[in-house]
Amino acid sequence: MSDAILQVKGLKVAYGGIQAVKGIDFEVHQGELVSLIGANGAGKTTTLKAITGMQPVTDGSIIYAGKAVNGKGSYDLVRLGLAMVPEGRGVFTRMTIHENLLMGAYVRNDKKGVEADIERVFGIFPRLKERRDQLAGTMSGGEQQMLAMGRALMCQPKLLLLDEPSMGLSPIMVDKIFEVIADISKQGVTILLVEQNAKRALELARRGYVMDSGALTMTGSADALLHDPRVRAAYLGE
Ligand code: ATP
């Protein structure tokens, strides 16, 4: 499809002899919020790592904004507007909130624009503004998740990959994070969301993919997946 911002074709990834991703095809269109759900160890994180050049690809192609990006490193991808918020957040614990946000803008040199975007991030996450000069390592898990998302927004991404943003968070914080994901999506950022919280992820998304043992086993509108008896039995605890 012509409006695909990301096309993954025949993607295979292995760790030594273990095939973690076994030849998958999927795409994300401009402006969409797409959820990739699946159990522990299904290969979701590996898929995101392959897209962002953090894990070598055994076979297949990754096309972002019309160009093959296989083998490109994270730095080049961020410059092209493809950002990832990794599982476990990966904030710089010994830097302040403000410094972490500046790190997110390391590919930019428009100082005024960067300052304006910091204010925009503070608008989305007022908690970060209150704690602007606090060391990131002293913040709660939820606050660190907010910071990781804020940092990713600082590179003005066109496509944002989110890996398990709700993991380990309190129910209130999970609500807040999903609310913000919806907001970011409404602001026009295309999102690929990897989640074990299948219900919430599908409620938010337009389309979804189900991953099992390295393969994509189902796809469709998020609503259809939410009501599919197989999805309900395997991933929604029914
Ligand atoms: P989770 O939600 O638990 O992160 P996932 O769907 O993201 O699961 P992956 O982390 O991509 O799954 O793992 C897919 C498979 O690859 C698993 O069998 C896992 O054990 C294996 N794997 C992941 N990382 C490595 C690694 N660095 N070395 C060897 N095997 C790995």
TrEMBL record:
Kindly provide the name given to this protein in its UniProt entry.
Answer: Leucine/isoleucine/valine transporter subunit ATP-binding component of ABC superfamily
Carries keyword Cytoplasm?
Answer: no
Q: Which UniProt keywords apply?
A: Amino-acid transport, ATP-binding, Cell membrane, Membrane, Nucleotide-binding, Transport
What GO MF terms are annotated? ATP binding; ATP hydrolysis activity; branched-chain amino acid transmembrane transporter activity
A GO biological process held by the record: L-amino acid transport
A Pfam family in this protein? ABC_tran
Q: Which residues form the ABC transporter domain?
A: 6-238
Family membership: Belongs to the ABC transporter superfamily.
Q: So which domain of life are we looking at?
A: Bacteria
Task: Identify the Gene3D superfamilies for this entry.
Answer: P-loop containing nucleotide triphosphate hydrolases
What organism is listed for this UniProt entry? Thiomonas delicata
Matching entries from InterPro entries are given as:
AAA+_ATPase (IPR003593), ABC_branched_ATPase_LivF/BraG (IPR030660), ABC_transporter-like_ATP-bd (IPR003439), ABC_transporter-like_CS (IPR017871), BCAA_Transport_ATP-bd_LivF (IPR052156), P-loop_NTPase (IPR027417)
